[in-house]
Amino acid sequence: MNKPFSQACENNKQAILTILEQVFLKSTQVLEIGSGTGQHAVYFAKHLAQLNWQTSDLPVNHQGINQWINDFPSNNLKRPIDIDLNHPWFEIPNDKTIDGIYSANTLHIISWPLVERFFTEASVNLAPEGTLCLYGPFNYQNKFTSESNANFDLWLKDRDPQSGIRDIEAIISLASSAKLTLMADNQMPANNRLLVFMKQK
User: Fold this and answer.
1) Low-confidence ranges of the chain (pLDDT < 50)
2) CATH of 7-199, one of 3.40.50.720, 3.30.750.24, 3.40.50.1220, 3.40.50.150
3) What are φ and ψ of residue 85, in 5° steps?
4) What sign does the dihedral 33-88-183-111 (CA atoms) show?
5) Which of 17, 21, 70, 143 has the largest count of CB atoms under 10 Å?
6) Max CA distance (Å), the chain
7) CB 52 within 8 A of CB 75
8) Strands 138-139 and 77-82, bridge-based pairing
9) pLDDT by residue (tens digit) across 124-141?
């Protein structure tokens, strides 16, 4: 079986890493929600050697993630655990403190109730003063930032009416209610953003 591959992951991994090198500088245990193909995980773990990178996704995606880990292993890269946003994150190892959470291109492909659950679980599982990083497209004041994002939103809603690019104001409000404070909103390639939140003490 050929490994799953995302060209977008190849295109954005270095730009994202540049931010993660700063915001995860003091992190030791990072949980990735929705590892997808596994490309980000193998790249980031290699370059962020001071932390342990825990992959996660639905079981259907584990084989592909494991193929990437097999081909590009790192001592600090952990094989995927099963996390379904419909349920609490039971499989997270509870013997170590999670002080970083990373997720890319997830909030626009899930329903709003699952976005709400995402922030609830992130708040429950993230250590005080821990960092949450979210990568993807966002709207500002109910407006798309580009024509390509508007077209992408149409494609998403045609695929699943409950999905779609989220308004950043709604995301910030939801995060705030989950004791997560926006620390930075980074402009990224291809009309994407990388939002950095900190868990309140």
Assistant:
1) none
2) 3.40.50.150
3) -65, -10
4) positive
5) 17
6) 46
7) no
8) unpaired
9) 999 999 999 999 999 999
